[in-house]
Amino acid sequence: MTTEFKFHLDKTSKKFVCPACRQKRFVLYINTGSQEYLSEKVGRCDREDSCGYHFTPKEYFVENPEAYGPTFTEQNFPDKPVPKIASAISFLPFEIMNTSVTGHRLCSLYPFLQKLFGDEIASVLCQEYFIGTSRENNTAFWQVDIEGRIRQVKVMQYNSETGRRNKETGAIFAGKKILGDNEANLQQCFFGEFLLSLPENDNKKVAIVESEKTAVIASIYYPEFVWLATGGKHGCKWTEATVCKVLQGRKIILFPDLGAFESWSNKALLLAAITGCKVAVSDTLERIATPEEKTNGLDLADYLLQNSDSSCLALTDDNYPVIWDYSNFKSICYE
After folding, report:
1. Most CB atoms within 10 A, among 31, 34, 88, 282?
2. What are the structural domain ranges in the chain?
3. Model pTM?
């Protein structure tokens, strides 16, 4: 009887040391039957931009056919994921989000927003973007789609004084825990997507950044745009048709973090092809950044919050960003 091997990447949060980059970011392949890992070198590094190491089960068995058995051939090995019957998309309950957002003043990011914009504006931002608090008073970014359905919630810890996120704790997606269902079919959307449904935003261009915090801050400086966040370079699978279809009919400008310009330029081409939209990519940060700033991967919010005029993005003495007077930037945004 032939043994059938079927593998997929481990869906838990467990990571191992990558054989290539030596960082603990390696996701192993697991046998769907025995629930055992195939080998500590068979997997994919999730540092896609800086490493990208990927060693598949098929490649492993080509090198080690005895591990498969006497019937192994490259042709009969199923190296593609086991197809699953698509289940209905799951959504999170409104009541839990409402409780979280009602208590937004307790979240770790709120004191920073309050220091920047005052209590009234900071509170409005949290309500408009559905920013709430977790049980531990961390910041909860609720993803609400264009139809008002709650897709996911991303919980992050911030320093309430500096507004910097705690990179050691990272981000936690709490949707499945809230539903009490590890098999729930949760599909993310853009952070801020619900704003696209408001009539007052119908004719506004859409600006897309990576960080949720950056989208929120930029919305104050540039209210002529609808600001959305992907939640990561590849977050929410934002270049897939099922996600980006909400952008159809819009004019879009992308604001990549430093170091991500080339990657996001490629994504812009894909986004334009899928949606039929006009998509521009701002290279402002790339042109004005110092080598150190590029190394640190600064984003738009980092410049908006600077206190000097040297970057051409900081606030003037009249409390508006110098970038408003930056003609080249305007040509990129408004063409």
Report:
1. 282
2. 7-68, 86-188, 194-335
3. 0.71
